[in-house]
Amino acid sequence: MKLFALSVIGLMLLLFLSCKDNNGTETVSLEDISHTSDKFDHIEDNRETAEIKDEKPKQAYFLTAFDSIYKDASWFMLDSLLFPDRFGPSKMEKWYLLSQKDSIVALHYEFRDSLRTKNAFFNWIDCYGPTCDSYQVGSQFKKQSRNSLFLIGANQLVYIESKTPIATKKLVELLNEEKKDQNWIYVLEIPGRKKTRWSKIKEGEIQELKGQQDNKTAGL
């Protein structure tokens, strides 16, 4: 009866299982967070979810979009240090959402300039996943069990990870209702077992990024 409650407690404990970078700063791997989703595959007793405090905010970057896409999910704030935190964001939101059918990691970072934003993104994909695989713009990522999405703007980095497919187009439209505001230098879709898709969005228009591009100049 208490499986859900114990699983969430287990999730929180995992946040203390961290690794250290070269500067000795402790960070938590997203693998430790997102892979706990397997524990929620067979949750059926809704009474158990009521015992867990939902931390859904009244205001948040993802609020409007997730009220539409993940409306039945419970929100939990992540306060542990993650990889993009190392690059000095001026603002950030880190969430873990749980529903009966899915678990979602949602990260939003704002940086002072495009250089910091791109540095965070390029360094992330240069050592991506539990085996620290190196990728560049245009690379095909190894197949994985979950779906991932990166949105990279002039000074924003958005990362979504989900067990179920991510509705990229719908998400982009919900994050910015006006097409003139739908501008993303890189859209990186890693749809689980399928082919990686690279594109960019300019004023709501999606353009495929073909071939491998140099990290320092792509998207400029």
Automatic annotation (TrEMBL):
Keywords attached to this entry? Signal
Asked if Signal is a keyword of the record, the answer is yes
Q: Which domain of life is it from?
A: Bacteria
Q: What PROSITE patterns has UniProt attached to this entry?
A: PROKAR_LIPOPROTEIN
Q: Does the keyword Signal apply?
A: yes
| Signal peptide positions (record) | 1-23
> What protein is this chain from?
Lipoprotein
Lineage start: Bacteria, Pseudomonadati, Bacteroidota, Flavobacteriia, Flavobacteriales
